[in-house]
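quick one, 731 residues, struct below
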Amino acid sequence: MSSQIPMTHVDRVPSLSCIPGFTAPVLESVSLDVDLEDLLALVEVRQGFANRDGEPIEAVYTFPVPRGAVLLSFTAKLGENELVGRIMPAAKAEDDYEEAVAGGDAAILLQEAEPGLYTVNIGNLLPGETALLTYRYAQLQYWQADTLRFALPTVVAPRYGRPSQSGLQPHQEIETDYFAHHEAEFSARIRGALLDAEITCRTHAIAVERQADQAIVRFADGDTRAMDRDIVLQLRRAKPAVANVVAEPTASGGGQVALLTLCPGQGRPTSPEGRFVKILVDCSGSMAGASIGQARDALRRILDSLRPQDHFAIVAFGSTHRNVTAETLPGTREAIAAAREAVATIHANMGGTELGAALMPLLARRDPDGRQGDVLLVTDGELADQVLVEKAAAVGGRIFTVGVGCAPGESLLSRLSEQTGGAAEFVTPGDDVAARIHRHFQRLFRPRVTALEVTWPGTVISERRDRDGGLFAGDTVHLLAHFKGAGEGEVAVRCELEDGTGGSTSLPLRRLAATAGAVPAASLLERLLAAGELRTATESRRSLARKAVVRLTELAVRCELLSPWTSCLMVALRDDDAKTDGQPSLRKVAQMPAAGWAGHGVISAELCCSGAGSMEMESAIHRDTARFCLSAMPKSASAVPSATWTLGRLAALGVPQAVIDEAQHLVAGGHDEELTCLLLLRELLQVGLKLRLGRDRARLVRRGAQEAAARDPDLAALVAQVIAAQAGTLF
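---
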């Protein structure tokens, strides 16, 4: 059965710039522009910010990007200044940003908060000033059978759990405001092998204009749409491209980098051996509404597909978890009938999303024949738990994830499936959700790729494939390789499935058409290859040796890539009369609630359907209600108490005793105590020592230290020498 899409929350929200005592919206415009050719998407995102308040502000916005997106460039227009971002080690970028803000200059910092999340910080945006930020990123795409699903995220749904569990800094934490409202323009140009594909969209009404060399996709009326759901295009071809390989020379001329795209065949039906299928269903409050009903429909279809030789179990989870069926049941007619009745008791009324507590014991559970089996997980995936993937991989057993809703947690669910040898599927309201979940369930029985061998026309220097976990018949896999050679000849490929089928083929090496994305030290494909290495290392970054971190940081800087170890910085120096006091008021851009999240959103009786087969809901929130509720939103401020910096306070701030002793010697020698403390604290911040200051007090320190260095440069030099001498003992 086809489901309906939740409504857009609010049609328009009035500007608050004229209401005394309340903040005006900071993010004023967003546009999304896509070039999709073959299986490579190039996306340009433009965000317009403005300060409509009467004081300098720091705008902070954490926003989603597709998992696997590779940032190609980041530029800004700040007032009349054109700025270009520079990739540098993350600690230095953050320190330089804080120094610039504390010094009253304008600065923009882009960080990878976690896989699939960026945070941009715009420091010291003056009253009436605007900033237009432009990001360009690349992303490889994938066929699933005859369909390619292109998803462009626009919103981060509320997450269950402590933000610290995902490693987010306080300023990066996701905030959702029920009366926040952001809109985006959207356009996509589709070319190459996808040009003749059928294009549909179940999340938005679209218009498709077909030209000789491209298809242009826009929102149906050319207007903007609320950023409360992912934009999902589905492109379907009767015969998707099977294999392709392109290459380009490295920036240094030291060989070639090639991209091989392959879709292994479907294989034969699996053997009649029984399987143990363990189904884990999210029944937390965020699944309320259409999502939980669709999950029940899918479970009934899955039960009807089980064979007598199979075993199964169904578990529901929320704040706690419970067995919907017995711990293991045979796939007999009687057991399935009883399970179908039990499925009717599943509701989204179990509170939070304690996935780990339910998943770990279920992964370890075995059937009477000793089989560990596979887990099929149905959830919206919105939780903060970055160590869950490592724990699940350690237990063993494959996890097949299904992300449901308008903004599912793509990053976590993809990583969870890939790291355990399973696969991920994402379904959108408007799809035949039950059928999609059932189709994904059938992948448990499909043959895996057991061998994939590639012979390149030259000596291989490095090689990487983007699917390190499970690869199944019919899935797309991308392989990138750096090899010595002239970029001519053929690539030999041999693929074998676990059912014994497979085959070999040879593909001519084609030159990659000229495209943007290269930097002086790396071509586009070099950057994609390096990004794959960084992405793999991210999964184990907690256990990386310092030497490995240094090498990865150098790789990211050379290839100009955003990563956990690098950030992107721009600084605009201001004239003295335009500098601020270094303490801008914080303005965090809140997320809209994701459409349909926790049952929010009323289903309209009238659907607006485009010729491309999309559906949208009309808003049922009255504009006057929105205006009334918005008036209750308080103005945020960053009031920072003044501080006196003395030697006696240093220990409480986390300064090592050896450093305090050196500071005491300086003061005993006649140097000013407060200036010494400020200069000392700034030097410690700059070398990366974690002090108990907080962001605002750290800025007070930096600002005060800048003034202290100007007053007493000799003392500043002495303090720098002290910290340099102590550097080896600080960490």
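Residues 694-711 form the longest helix (18 residues).
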